[in-house]
TrEMBL record:
Removes C-terminal D-alanyl residues from sugar-peptide cell wall precursors. This is Beta-lactamase. Belongs to the class-A beta-lactamase family. Its EC number is 3.5.2.6. PROSITE patterns: BETA_LACTAMASE_A. InterPro entries: Beta-lactam/transpept-like, Beta-lactam_class-A_AS, Peniciliin-bd_prot_C_sf, Peptidase_S11_C, Peptidase_S11_C_sf, Peptidase_S11_N. The keyword Hydrolase applies. Pfam families: Peptidase_S11. GO terms for molecular function: beta-lactamase activity; serine-type D-Ala-D-Ala carboxypeptidase activity. The lineage of its organism: Bacteria, Bacillati, Bacillota, Bacilli, Lactobacillales. GO terms for biological process: proteolysis; response to antibiotic.
Length: 414
């Protein structure tokens, strides 16, 4: 009988252990982030709300890859900057050299016809560069602006730096392998070298370009434009962006108005698109997408449709909108005060699932330069002290900076 009791006792103990383990597994699963709302069949991808900087999706987003003709957004940035600085003019005519005419006549590349010795305006060349990714036009613009590929590369690097991008490799303005530029290739550089940027880099440059040079979108939203090859010959350009309004892959809600595609053997099919959804500008980058151009466009369309259908932007006016427990923070060594109120440094708008309340984002306060949830006096009014982290179902966490709304002097030692 004792043996039977002992057997049942052991059985109950094992059952209890298994139960605890299974429960533990369940709790462990809940701690992990929810499945991502979006999945993109690409080597790398990055999507942001351009105003708030909220990341909506990321995949290998900081690793550098070839980006093909997507680099022309950076080329455009330099050209627009130099037009604004009166170094170039929209109606300025650029004469086509034999080397540029050869590039424009090569069937391997994207182009409009450019005739040797013919002159074309900066506006014509810019339109053809952005609508049909004309490589000869891009080369003509860069050489007229800076005189050489190397000199224009320096301008591109400087523009990228203004956008907050520094760790990139730039070899030319077109996005082709270095050797494909023939006479205008970089000397002493491998013929297969291509520009290397990350998906995040492309998004930051795109954001800066659209913010600082909004005329960009007047160019990239054109569906058609005529290109006068000669006085007697005209070429109708059709924008290659299949997501533009009324095109086959236009999203249901919202409107795409840019930006650029690209393709080389190493880079694969790349795209950066942008448009407004629920009044918010979204930028979406995908590098080396799988399948054909239709697959790429459908993937981007699906992203925008799902964002519009399942998510909405919600404005946050004050910290108490998130939690009343996070409106103040303790202060160590304060004179006459042991805490200070905090406030949002900015009033951000955040994308949330349509059935999710702000309070359900599990907001947590993280202090700068401290593992503790407190400050050390002195604290100045307006001083940035930390951030509130939001955990949003299906999306990456979002960080909102907070500042002290009161000053706290340091306690005297005497």
């Amino acid at each position: 009988m004792k043996k039977v009791k002992s057997f049942f006792t052991k059985l109950l103990l094992v059952t209890a252990i298994i139960s605890v383990c299974l429960n533990g597994v369940g709790m462990f699963t809940k701690v992990h982030a929810d499945p991502l709302a979006f999945q993109m069949d690409a080597r790398a991808a990055y999507a942001i709300d351009a105003e708030s900087g909220q990341v909506l999706y990321q995949k290998n987003a900081t690793k550098r890859y070839p980006i093909a003709s997507v680099i022309k957004i950076l080329t455009l940035g330099v050209i627009l900057q130099d037009i604004r600085n009166h170094h170039l003019k929209w109606d300025q005519k650029i004469k086509i050299t034999p080397a540029v005419a050869k590039m424009a006549d090569d069937w391997h590349f994207s182009n409009v016809p450019l005739m040797n010795g013919e002159k074309y305006t900066v506006r014509q060349l810019v339109d053809s560069m952005m609508l049909v990714s004309a490589d000869g036009s891009t080369e003509a613009l860069a050489l007229a602006d800076a005189g050489s590929t190397a000199a224009f590369n320096k301008k591109m690097m400087a523009f990228a730096k203004k956008a907050g991008v520094t760790d990139i490799k730039i070899y030319n303005m077109i996005g082709l392998p270095n050797g494909d530029l023939g006479k205008h290739k970089l000397k002493g550089v491998d013929k297969d070298a291509e520009n290397l940027l990350s998906a995040k880099d492309v998004a930051l440059i795109s954001k800066y370009l659209v913010d600082e040079y909004p005329e960009t979108l007047d160019i990239t939203k054109q569906k058609f434009a005529n290109f006068d090859v000669t006085k007697d010959q005209q070429y109708l350009m059709t924008n290659v962006n299949a997501l533009l309004p009324q095109n086959g892959f236009a999203p249901k809600d919202g409107e795409i108005d840019g930006l650029k595609t690209g393709n080389t053997d190493r880079a694969g099919k790349c795209i950066v698109s942008t448009g407004t959804f629920a009044g918010r500008r979204i930028i979406l980058v995908a590098l080396h997408t799988k399948g054909d151009w239709n697959n790429q466009s459908k993937m981007q369309q699906d992203f925008y449709n799902k964002l519009s259908a399942e998510y909405q932007p919600v404005e946050i006016k004050k910290i108490s909108d998130l939690s009343t427990k996070l409106t103040s923070v303790k202060v160590k060594d304060g004179k006459n005060k042991n805490k200070t109120n905090i406030k949002l440094t900015k009033e951000p708008t955040v994308w949330l699932p349509k059935n999710m309340k702000l309070q359900a984002t599990q907001p947590t306060l993280k202090m700068y330069n401290s593992d503790q949830k407190q400050l050390t006096a002195p604290v100045k009014k307006g001083q940035k002290v930390g951030s509130i982290e939001l955990h949003i179902s299906g999306l990456p966490d979002f960080s909102i900076p907070v500042s002290a709304s009161q000053s706290v002097a340091k306690k005297s030692m005497f």
